Amino acid sequence: MNETLDPVALEVAPFSATEAALTVLRARMAGVQYEVTNTAGMAQAKADRAELRGLRSEVESTRKALKAPLLESGKQIDAEAERIRLELVAVETPIDAQIKAEEARKEAERELRAAMERARVTAIHERIAEIRSYGTTANLCRNAQRAQSVMVNLLAMQAAVNMEVDFAEFAEQAATAYADTLQTVQAAIDARAADEAERTRIVQAQQAHAAQLKQAQEELATRTAEAFAEADQAAAELASERAQLAAERAEFAERQRLHDADLAQQKAALASVEYAQTAPVLIAEPTPTTESAPHVAIDATALAQPSRPTDRAIVAFLADGFNATPTQVLDWLATFDFGEFLTDLSPSVFNQ
After folding, report:
1. Angle at the Cα of 154 (from 127 to 135), degrees rounded to 5?
2. How far apart are CA 44 and CA 56, in angstroms?
3. Residues contacting 121, CB < 8 A, separation 6+
4. Which residue in 24, 184, 195, 315 has its CB near the most CB atoms, within 10 A?
5. Rg of the Cα trace of the chain?
6. Which residues of the chain have pLDDT under 50?
7. Collapsing DSSP states into helix, strand and coil, what is residue 92?
């Protein structure tokens, strides 16, 4: 057995002599102002410090001497405690291993159940997300037919699921996702159909406009060709009419010349007759040997009025006189008011 130290004995140990010396030294040295500026004072200060240091060294030596047995006892106590602890651990370890093994098994089962639950919930959320993805797919479709195929696939998937079994506590969310997605897909179908109808309308309108434009161009080309043809024909007719008019003018001039010559001849003959009637004595009888002059028939109507020119000659004469075309002259004559002209015309005109 280790020796047990008496606390009372420790209290009255050799520190009591040091305590007494301390009391004396405190009374003698505490608060003293040494004359360290001179040799005697410095020597006294050093001597007192050395005395205090010596006493302090004794206290430390005494402390170590007193503590050594206590340190040994502490080491013995620590060693015994560690031995007992190891014995206890040896008995405890198998029990602890069993407990920890069971706890680990339960924790593994709990973690497995939690992982399975997380996987189940994740799978349900992924299925709900897949349902909603049909709406995005439909909105990406370029035509109504493809969007309609998305609707068919969505309805087929909806028909193949059991809400309560496949979605459990998330059945309501799944039903909402189906309802929302069906509306989205249908809206995409309607929008694509409207777009296609509008595109068809625009294409048809463009085709109709192109057809109208083509028809207008063809009609314009036809009218232009006809106009050129008519212009060519009119030019040819005008040239023909001018040529015919020139011929008629020449014919009319020749007939007028012949008429004037005939009229002059008739007037000369009439004058000879009138002269013969008024002065018969002055007219000598022709000699038998003289050849009788040919008898000239006098037409009084011819002397009073020249022969009427042709309609074409009249039109040509007026066209030439007014520097107009025959067509314009005919338009003028069609609107000519002969009644008003004859009413306003002076009778002297017809006696000239």
Report:
1. 80
2. 18
3. 170
4. 315
5. 77
6. 1-3, 8, 280-304, 349-352
7. helix
Q: What single-letter DSSP state applies at residue 34? A: -
DSSP, res 306: P
CA-to-CA distance for 131 and 172, rounded, in angstroms?
A: 13
Q: Read off the pTM.
A: 0.40
User: What pLDDT, on the 0 to 100 scale, is given for residue 303?
Assistant: 46
318, two tokens: 């007026």
CA distance 173 to 127: 11
Per DSSP, the residues of 272-299 read HHHHHHH-GGGSPPPPTTSPPPPPPPP-
> Is the Cβ–Cβ distance between 141 and 191 less than 8 Å?
no
Q: How far apart are CA 77 and CA 55, in angstroms?
A: 33
Tell me which amino acid residue 201 is: R
Contact between residue 70 and residue 9 where contact means Cβ atoms under 8 Å apart:
no
pLDDT at 281 (0 to 100): 46
**d(Cα 278, Cα 139) in Å, to the nearest integer?**
127
Give the domain ranges of the chain: 7-91, 109-218
3 within 8 A of 69, measured Cβ to Cβ: yes
Q: Which amino acid, 151?
A: M
C-beta atoms surrounding 191 within 10 Å = 15
Q: DSSP characters for 189-244?
A: HHHHHHHHHHHHHHHHHHHHHHHHHHHHHHHHHHHHHHHHHHHHHHHHHHHHHHHH
What is the spatial distance between Cα 132 and Cα 144, in angstroms, rounded to a whole number?
19
- Which two three-digit tokens encode residue 273? 């007759």
Residue pointed to by tokens 């309308």 = 201
Listing DSSP states for 137-166 in one string gives HHHH-SSHHHHHHHHHHHHHHHHH--HHHH
Residue type at 120 in one-letter notation: R
132's tokens:
């909603």
> CA-CA distance, 178 to 195, in Å (whole number)?
25
